[in-house]
Amino acid sequence: MDTIFALASAPGRAGVSVIRVSGPQAHEVACLIAGDLPGVGRSGLRTLRSLAGDVLDQALVLVFAGPNSFTGEDIVEFQVHGSVSVVKSLLSTLAETGLARTAEAGEFTRRALMNDRLDLAQVEGLGALIEAETEAQRRLAMKVFSGRLGDVVEEWRGVLLRAAALLEATIDFADEEVPVDVTDEVVALIGAVSDSLEKEIAGSHVAERIRDGFEVAILGAPNAGKSTLLNALAGREAAITSEIAGTTRDVIEVRMDLGGLAVTLLDTAGLREAQDQIEQIGIARARDRAAAADLRVYLKTTPDEVVPIELQKGDIVRIGKADLFPSLSGGVSGLSGNGVSDLVNEITDQLLSRAARAETATHARHREAMVAALSALVASRSEVESGMDRAEFAAEHIREAVRRLDGLVGRIDVEAVLGEIFASFCIGK
Q: Does 228 reside within a domain?
């Protein structure tokens, strides 16, 4: 492997900038610039010099030895003063040594994956952590980055290995030490993993929304106060407001943080019989985005207005322009602010209750692998319940389920199954 280096902190002027060097010659490269290095796992203040001997900076130098480092390789980190010039000079000097090259995008994390310091799900969690904008996104990303999904998958694998071992023993190792009928135990093991998979799959949709953000569509007839409400929630003039009906033609989006959740509010075209082709397109888009949104807020123009769309569980209905109906309760007005806080609280409560159902899997890729694994386990259970003469087919479906789960974090082969058999049944003692 080449030795690589890169700026590990944000570019631009800062109090401190971190430059990381990783690879088999990391310590040698660092010695050329910093002289003697602190001991492994320690840090020390060093004067950094160019290859010509010119002083570049005074820096805190940290030394790590593989495999006990982020990448699993030898690493040296330079914590320098965050001057653009200092960073540029140090990077140039590292390149001039001829012993290291500039890292490619994501290459440090890629090496951590290759050296088994992170599994694939943890890599995704790290990416999500870097991109996290809200507290809920941070917590979810940390859950994945800390290896929770990998731990869950390892539990599933262990149970499935046991089930596969029982079936393989029935097929290949029939003797007095192997149970004659393992149907009940195998069915129970498959059922336990299947139940857990179903729960994880259901929660993955919510987790994905936490990661990408929830969408809340504001709907209503023209001049129901949708754009004024959006502006009040955004705290700025995000949408044009006018007494002229049909002012909003396209979907206007505003990103917000509600209760630690990333939420995109959608201001949509007023729902009515379109007056022209452009408005017709806007209304069609409004209906499509509303159907795909996580939550809908419908603003009535009058208390007795019939809602013209199909509402879903949790959707909110309010009387818009509540300042025109001072005697009515339950209204909202972006102009006066009446009812806005109550509406925000209700939206937040609705989304937080959904977020509470989130599990560990956060990506569509995770869900697809788990759905495929669950399908294989359903087929395996059917084979087992058909009789032990179908054990070979049942075992193959379990192996398929394990292969699908392998796509999340790791790998398994027949030797692992044999290892479970030997441990459980003392084969070959």
A: yes
